[in-house]
Amino acid sequence: MPQIIDGKAISMQIKDELKEEVARMHEVGINPCLAVIQVGADPASCVYVRNKKKACAYIGIESRAFELGEETTQEELIALIQKLNSDEGVHGILVQLPVPKHIDEDKIIQSIAPEKDVDGFHPVSVGNLCIGEKGFVSCTPAGIIQLLKRSDIKIEGKECVVIGRSNIVGKPMSILLLRENGTVTICHSRTKNLAEVTRRADILIVAIGKKQLITKEYVKDGAVVIDVGMHRDENNKLCGDVDFEDVSEIVSAITPVPGGVGPMTIAMLMNNCVEAARK
Ligand code: NAD
Question: In 4, 7, 139, 199, which residue has its Cα 20 to 30 A from 122's Cα atom?
Fold first, then answer.
């Protein structure tokens, strides 16, 4: 049986550490506060926003909710962000993505002050990550590094293969693994002979967005597999980009879906909020 990397337990551990730190902050008069902006009422976004507010409440972070109508203009949204940028009582600003189509997502991300960019999507945050400076890191890849470290899985010197090159997962993931001294290869939709490359991996990070695509043909014996994907199978049960049953037969460690990467994303968002208040 492989080691099942328990994201639920590890995320709880992180949230409890943050809860203690926030209690100490309260004692010296610092009240970490996250502004959560949602435009429209996309059902998946409503669930994500609700979970973020719940996590804030658990840790003791104040969350200020801004629920804007679908018809909100880009100018109105930017005006709100600018107001929050200069509000000293607000430490982090999060705009739940996606925003409605008439709003330019990049312009919104760029209007958030980098020191309040707790999602780590601002070009300044991404640039800092690339050159090894301090700054906020995209929550899902940051959470994966925590999963590996807290499961005693060494990254240094390992062959790390990331499938996916998105701005929020694949690219920052690759840079973080490089920062931990892994030897990193990035695969994507134009990669030839995907299985040939992925079978080199000691650590395989899968962020493709295709249901259960990765079977044991893509995986080396004894590898560590981290599954970022999130889908519903034919029985409406959550599943990932990896065929968990099939791949589990040969790996040394693997994340389940649900209960693997998913809970870590919110834990790292909370970590970034506390970090923003600490500064
Ligand atoms: P995306 O669609 O932006 O990127 C997918 C990447 O996979 C692209 O870079 C593409 O080049 C690559 N790709 C597509 N088909 C491929 C193929 N056949 N072979 C090799 N590469 C291929 O997706 P994303 O935002 O990076 O998310 C990936 C998955 O992770 C999705 O299922 C998403 O729902 C999930 N996700 C989960 C969390 C979480 O907190 N658990 C967070 C973000 C994303």
Answer: 7
